[in-house]
Request: fold
Amino acid sequence: MSMSHPGHHRVAIDIGGTFTDCVIVDERSGALEVIKVPSTPADPSVGFVNALDRVIGQHRVDPASISLVLHATTVATNAILEGKLARTALVITRGFADLLEIARQIRPRLYDLEAMKPPPLVPRELCFEVGERLDSDGAVIEQLDPADVEAAIESIAAAGVEAVVVCLLHSYLNPVHELEVAEQIRAALPDLFVSASSDVCPQMGEYARACTALVNAGLVPHVSGYFGRISSALEDLGITGALNVMKSDGGLMPVDLVVCLPMEIIESGPAAGVIGVAELARRNGFPRVVCFDMGGTTAKAGLLIDGEPILTPSFEVGSHAVAGDKGRGSGYPIRAPMVDLVEVGAGGGSIAWIDSGGILRVGPRSAGAVPGPVCYGKGATEPTVTDANVALGRIDPDYFLGGEITLDRARAWQAIDEKLAQPLGISVPAAALGILEVANATMLGALRMVSVQRGFDPRDFTLVCTGGAAGLQADTLMKQLGVAGTLLPPSPGVGTARGMLFADVRREFRATHLQRLDASGAQTAQAVIDELSGRARSAFATVTTDDALELRCAAELRFLGQSHQFLIDIPAGMLGTRETEPLAAAFRAAHTRMYGFASETEPVEMVELVVTATSRLSKPQVPRLAPGNGDARQALKGTREVWFDVEAPAATAIYERDRLCAGDAINGPAIVEAPDSTILIGIGSRALIDEIGNIAITAVSAPAARLAEPSLAAS
Reply:
């Protein structure tokens, strides 16, 4: 797990639904190169290797100079969505074999009497009971029955499973029986992956704990095979730098831990982009940021408060539900920290279609990497958001990916005409503009969900956009959401890959602790935090020294009897003083922001205690742009006819991003092009370039906002 290496290059690779993005940075100078290759859905590791081949071949990087390889991947997500979880057995306390069938009482839609629960992760015939019982304090009230364990082992051996999960009642308080059963199964069936739920998810709630452990175990064979291929490829290429993987919470994890805890990387890719934006927000002094990432398949939105992403302690998989979505209850709960994001099926590859009622729709189906949008010329016939932008002149067909791919505008125009314009009785520009308007409405809903519906006023925020398709929609979304302004960082088209360069190794340690938040509860809580801190130091002993390890403590709090809680930071030393009122006040403030009220008399209780351990990695230098005189004419490439309304196209100035200087200003309408992205500056907008190349856009008619003069503090 050592993070040190004598090399001076750092490589980050993100595998998306359409493209595999790669950035390589020289840690000494901060010079950064960008590579995009088509994703390979049949085996994403092929796209990973193709990107590295380009790094070594085209960019002439010595493999021995690569000190660190960072990776964000959808391999775990895809395995769940495609039903590729390993066949797994469940060993459970006698009388609870129907746990997965019963599941929970909540429904995705409250008044839908026909709502269906997700099918059990394990069929009833693979659930095996053993006699044992603990009480709610973790005390043994019925000893483990050896005969039941032997019978379960015999049944498991005959069932043809690849993995086994042991989930016994109240094991989060006392795992003695659970660990004993797991050890006996390992001894008898050494070829199976055996997991105790208390090792994976030592938290209250047997259904969520069982689902978390089962999804984790079901992912292990698939994910370990994937990273086995990745590791072999690195070895064949002569790359000896450590491989670290982005987790759902925005931290990095060494690959040897990932193959045991793949549930930690289910939302790997979306988290990486947020971490890059967080670094930008901290350096630029933006206290409140709305993150927006639009790729080829989906768009994601999240919030940053004081440079830190908002995390959620659990999420759902196997459904269309996301953190905070109204679809909650339609999937399997996973107890693992995740950056709180709302994800919608709106990306550059989202397909536009007409429903049975004659209404124009966009997404959630995507053309993906194969066959891709119609303009790729790979046989697709259904128009997408990218086709609309090409047809409207917003994307240069000869400069896509810096000219690496030539797009066919005529095919895009024809597809929109045949599939949409003629059936709707409108012109092709009107249909193309309609595609963008519908897609923007979907994305605006996601942006409002993470801001307005979380109790925040968007006018207090800056919109920071990443993703290859985001630059074309950022100006419109800024105006519709009502934020102070929007900012496009350098290389936004590889924002997820670039974001990993600023991530740190991080891991969370949790313990259930049901106690009143008072002087007595503070004393017992401090003992638990001390124990969690000790576990964190042991886990990071090979990564960093105790002095360099950062430990952050928090508690999940709720009003007594509630079923939902808020994660509140615990200031250093607070519990030792037994002064708990500031912690209760912070909880009430969070409760008021979310629900509009908070009781001043109702007692507060602790549910979970959390210690987050972080080992900081060195951050690459950020190159500065040459200063300009405020005039961007040196970057002007020419003009192009671009449609902004259905009347007629307008002659629009086209600028090359790599030739812009610090302090340059551009008035809309205009387009700024780069190999990884295209940025539209709309009518009535103005863009300013800062000293590292951020493009800050504001509406000219809007009052002066904090985004008007962005500057980067010294690295």
